[in-house]
Amino acid sequence: MSGITVIVPFSRPSQVGHVVACFARQRYQDKRLVVVENGAAVGQWTLPADAVLTASSGPAEARNVGLDYVRQHGGGGFAMFDDDDYYGPGYLEEVAQALCKGADVVGKAALFVRVQAGLRAVLGGPEHMWCRSLFPGCTLAGWADTACEFPDRRVGEDSAWLLAMIAQGAQMWAGSRFGFCYDRSGVDHALQVEDDVLLRCWARGNAKAYDFGDWDPGVVDGVMDVVPAKLELGEYRVSDDPGARAAANRLGWNLEEMARMPIQILGGTG
User: Fold this and answer.
1) Sequential DSSP letters for 80-127
2) 3-class DSSP state for residue 259?
3) How far from 233 is each of 204, 254, 259, CA to CA, in Å?
4) Gap between the terminal Cα atoms of the chain
5) Are strands 208-213 and 229-231 parallel, antiparallel or unpaired?
6) For the residues 172-194, what does the mean pLDDT come to?
7) Could you give phi then psi for residue 240, rounded to 5 degrees?
């Protein structure tokens, strides 16, 4: 394959150093970095980026601007990085392995989440498997030349993109829980929804949430063993939860659409 381009829609000036660190720590070496300024300028910082581009109308445009750049400069794989999440040293290696297996879309259906109270994990979704699942947008990866355009939406553009990719028959690979952490511990996080409501939305169906205690990258990267405590979120239909419904309305999520899209396990570990 012709390498992987990391696309970062950039909206938080305080996160420049974090973006550089996440990219630099990747063991996978055939990599490029494209930063798309989306409401914030990189400014005087010097980035090890192949390009610093600009988008003006939100995250969907930022993702599309990045994809267009990849297509115009040799194509190959892409991986979307958010500027406030943790991407471990083996993250791109795992993406590259999945793309070489024949995946059109790679993401995570089981993942770690860092909240104000500590490190959590939503587990029980498929790992190392072919599946149909709505992956978080901060874990999306695939081939630039076959990727759809992200729909022009202020929120929920990642879910709409995934549904479009599924409709065109994309082969989807769920990676492991390791090597990534969705970080909600910052006060200026873009996804304004209560932590417990978000965990409930993600832990629908066959997934459960667990408490891993204090944040530690060794746990997220799978190099340190910790026995978690199960979080009792209760069994319920997300669409019947008024709190979840109110949050979904703010985020542009269609809970009925999500309910019709249960996680489907399509095959083994390839």
Assistant:
1) E--TTSEE-TTHHHHHHHHHHHT-SEEE-SSEEEEETTEEEEEESS--
2) helix
3) 10, 21, 18
4) 18
5) antiparallel
6) 78
7) -95, 0
DSSP strand pairing (111-115 vs 118-123): antiparallel
Q: Write down the pTM of the prediction.
A: 0.85
pLDDT tens sequence across 146-168: 999 998 876 778 888 998 999 89
Please tell me the distance from the alpha carbon of residue 39 to that of residue 208, in angstroms, as a whole number.
35
Average pLDDT of the segment spanning 174-194: 77
Domains of the chain with CATH codes: 4-265 (3.90.550.10)
Find how far residue 12's CA is from the centre of its chain: 17
Percent helix, strand, coil in the chain (nearest 5)? Answer: 30, 25, 45
Residues 6+ apart with CB under 8 A from 72: none
| Cα distance between residue 7 and residue 56, in whole Å | 16
